Amino acid sequence: MDERCYSAPHLGARMKLDRGDHRDVRRRTLAVLGLVALALVAAACAPNATQDSLQPAGPYARKAYDLYVPVFWVATAIFVVVEGLLVYFAWKYRHRKGREGIPPQVHGNTRLEIAWTILPAIILAGVAVPTVTTIFDLAREPEGDVLNVDVLGHQWWWEFDYPEEGINTANELHIPTDRPVYLRLCAVGVGYQGQVAPSECQPGPPEGSFPATLGDSVIHSFWVPELAGTQDVIPGRTNFMVIQADEPGTYTGQCKEFCGLSHAYMKFTVVAHTPEDFEAWVAAQRAPAAMPSVGTPAAAGAEVFAGQCIACHAIDGLQGPDGQPIPIQQQSNNGPNLTHFASRGCFAGCMLETNDENLRRWLEDPPSVKAGSWMPSYNLTPEQIDQLIAYLNSLR
Amino acid sequence: MASVSVPAERPRGLLRRPTATTGFWSWVATVDHKKIGILYGVTAFAFFIVGGTEALLIRLQLAQPDQNLLSPSAYNELFTMHGITMVFLVVMPLSAAFFNYLIPLMIGARDVAFPRLNAFSYWAFLFAGLFIYSSWFLGGAPNGGWFGYAPNAVVDPTRGMTFYAIGLLIAGIASTVSAVNLAVTVINMRAPGMTLFRMPVFVWMGLVVQLLLAFSLPIITIGLVELLFDRRFGTHFFNPAAGGDPVLWQHLFWLFGHPEVYILVLPAMGIVSEILPVFSRKPLFGYQFVVFSGIAIGFIGFGVWAHHMFAVGLGPVANTAFGISTMIIAVPTGVKIFNWLGTLWKGDIRFTTAMLFAIGFIAMFVIGGLSGVTHAVVPSDYQQTDTYYIVAHFHYVLFGGAIFGLFGGMYYWWPKVFGRMLDERWGKVQFWTMLVGFNLAFGPMHVLGLQGMPRRIQSYPESLGLTFWNLVSTIGAFTIALAVLLFLVSAVRSFRQPKEMAADPWDARTLEWATSSPPPVHNFDEIPVVHALDEVWHRKYAETEGGRVVPVPAGGSGEPGHGEGHAIHLPGPSYYPFVASLGLPILGYGLIFDWWLAGVGAMVTLAGLYGWILEPSAE
Amino acid sequence: MATIEHAAVTEHPTSTGLPNTKLAMWLFLASDCLLFGALISSYVLYRGASLVGPYPNDVFDIPYTSVSSFVLLASSLTMVLALSAIQRGDHGRLRIWLLATAMLGLTFVGGQVYEFTVFAHEGLHLTANLFSTTFYVLTGFHGTHVAVGILMLLTLLSFSFAGRLPQERAETVELVGLYWHFVDIVWIVIFTVVYLIPTGSGPT
What we know:
The complex is a heterotrimer of chains A (396), B (619) and C (204).
Chain A: H1 3-6, H2 9-14, H3 18-45, H4 59-92, H5 110-139, E1 147-154, E2 157-162, E3 167-170, E4 172-176, E5 181-187, E6 220-223, E7 231-233, E8 239-243, E9 249-255, E10 267-273, H6 275-286, H7 297-308, E11 346-347, E12 352-353, H8 356-364, H9 366-369, H10 382-393
Chain B: E1 4-5, H1 24-29, H2 33-62, H3 72-106, H4 115-134, H5 152-155, H6 160-188, H7 201-233, H8 246-280, H9 287-300, H10 316-344, H11 353-376, H12 378-384, H13 388-418, H14 424-450, H15 467-494, H16 535-540, E2 541-543, E3 549-551, E4 568-569, H17 576-592, H18 595-614
Antiparallel strand pairs in B: 2-3
Helix pairs in contact in B: 2-3, 2-4, 2-15, 3-4, 3-6, 3-8, 3-13, 4-6, 4-17, 6-7, 6-17, 7-8, 7-9, 8-9, 8-11, 8-13, 9-10, 10-11, 11-13, 11-14, 13-14, 14-15, 17-18
Chain C: E1 4-5, H1 20-45, H2 56-59, H3 62-88, H4 91-121, H5 130-161, H6 170-196
């Protein structure tokens, strides 16, 4: 027997005895598989997840979900078979002490090769058919009583414009239940060298508009997982998507496409109302803001606002120091429309809950709260801030 | 030992070729593919530590909600650099390390086709990495993601993305040049009798990867040039205000980016295809099918790029086409996996650490591949895209896949390269630690993504219910770090062993095991003549008529090798590849800071090139 | 024990019969095809998309560019003649034709420089619009390739004068020739796609 070839000294010498080895392999593989199973179980049981694509709350999200679930189970089945074979072979064909010689050099089987080429292809074809029909289904413009909303992505907040209702708001997208909401997605802001890209959406006040000139125009992505999958919001392009909620409620979402410093803080909520409540909301939002009574802190706040803030924020119904209303068309839409600010639960791209403490922090120095914020600090005095807060709180 | 003779002609000072074969400067001037392979490997591993540290910092920041350990600015730089590092400075050069060291040995050659060009590629890669990292000190690291989407990458006011564009251009030059070099080597320098279908699978995968590189890198080169011009010179390639389209960047990037992921994983698949037969003690189940599936993956890989762009709004027809092509590419991938299973079947399996990593590769890659199939379900991808579900997928295929395969290769070929073994006990501890840590780190990310966690966010609020799995993931990440540390210690310890290793310690199958460990500088005393696939195995064993496999008597199949009696000509060392590549980062700095510096860089490169062509040829 | 020498080149037999260098040049040129493919694609995709002028019809002088294209085409002919000369061992002719090729190439590049100066005076500077962006980067890349080719030709010429380019090294000339013809062919594509196929004089 030739020493050189057969005994393979390093092969043998470095091997641990297999008896303990195969038990190790099995034990640890089971541990890993157990962890994976635990993860899958926990996935279904998370109580707090409010952006859970596995809990669709509307037909468009459900279409994606109804495709994912069966494919997931098919993938799981394949996983079990393949990994099972792997573990089984590793265990069954492990080297056993005392087994001498080299195993028969079994290899090659053209029929098997053809079979395991064709079978996965068939499975995939089965997955492809409903996939393709759903792609086209989701791309179709919705029919019937559709609510049209323009979604404008700024750095780093969402503007919602309802052209037919004549409403412009931010951070909270209110919709009625059981009605398709057709979203037109536009990215707005400043492009290269200060140029402003044309956009199909009409930003700003409903009558007359001008493009936003603050914030870089970059790609965003509109994502409210419980109501639909994403579509990107791209400068120079207009994308469309549909969302629809089954039940009244609040659904959270955020920007999904990396868009700069405060990408993590470009959030929004979708508030779904019953149709009656939605009409009430529309009516309230269309009404201009009432000016606060003269002499109140809120009135002083309105003065501060008219002096500083209308550089970027519009309020329908705001009066200048001369008592004359400032037309909405002359007010800027570089920042969110604040006409009904206090009716919203969050601000600053839904980074902050609407309350006095947060407002104070924000108004003192926005960039220190939100990295890269295009709203600068105006070096307001604490008194001015109090007055502004009083005014903002009055904007229900 | 080999004697080195000085060339007959005596050129003037600058053009005199260096002669040292040991010591520091011998590494700077080396053109030996084995030394260059080691340089690639060590450098890539160093970047692996750096990239891993970046990951640990990210995971620390995300371990709990609403943290501010890292500001958004720092966070954006860290995840960008983590991606750039792992893709371009770790996995690609680690694969290059293996290709460089092993391909000539596996095909029975003495070196690659263009040894000095090979050295140039390494130095250009090193300088590219250093150039990109120097950005931390020169105005800020790249912060627009490794994918650098326009317009954000264009309008970002810090210098980082300019470093990104130029650094990757330099790296691209390194890889393109290396791709041509290795492709010519495989096509043209095989030993007598080594037909294409007697090459090891690893060499085949190497060939496919080089061709993928050669054809995909030019596309991103243009993308990066367009990005650089938009940033630096005010052009309008991606400027919507001038009629440009940011999506053009995405097309150019992903036309490269998708073949790139096969560039990242095919080498590891080749490694697995070598390890499994050796430690199952039987051949790869279906050699031709594994080879053809690799070629098919390469081809189809150019046809799936827009599956990274399903949510861009290309339209249902485009989305359908790319969804289907993405499903199609799963088929040849499955063929490989089944062939690997068939290799284990009826084998006599030895669980060396290399084998554990190879089996681990299959186990983890299957998971990543299956989640990949779920991405191909386009409407579902509208939910999955840009979430941690995708992060989970690509880490399963790139870490559980490529990195595991590369670690397997390290354990397998360590004795060949360094003449010592890595300790097998430590190896097994390292493997299991890494396997557990890896699954803890990335398994939960599937859940996190489906439950609403987008990518690239500096923090998340408590209210999203993502806290628990983020913490688990962070623990997993640190477990991985522990495993890597174990490997480093094991690597250092291995050098304390004496350098005495048999030529063929694993009883393997391919030509690199037919020469000493480590090989002599000229690889083979005599170029082997090849008669079959798995030539080395067939020199050791033959099948009897009864089908039993028995050893061949020693000294049996003796055919005089090629080149017997001739002196062996080897290319001599040279400094000029180093010089030529040194000009590139200087040119890069010049593009950022000052034109005269760019001129200097160009001059240095030209000087290097002229020295290169003028120095006495020595093949 | 084998002795290793670092000595002059000896021809090794290759698996395909093609020399390594020639195979490498073909592979590199194939790779370069994709480089120009991406640039030309960018140009074509943005054809007619400029929002402001000057537009192609406002600046192009087709007869002028046709002449310079012919000059470049002629340089491919002189390149072939140079290769044929060295293959015959005629070093005098080799040098003449190499010089001619380089001169024609320089004429082409010089012609482009002049052409672009005129364009710039007419308002088509690099950052004017989408047309200028794609046009200048595409033709600039091509022009750089030509310049590198001219450098290689002049290097070959000086090697020949220094006695470093004997007949046995004809293949080096062939390789530079391959590169030069490739650059010429790319120009034919660029000239056709950019200059000859009409775009119109306004945004479509």
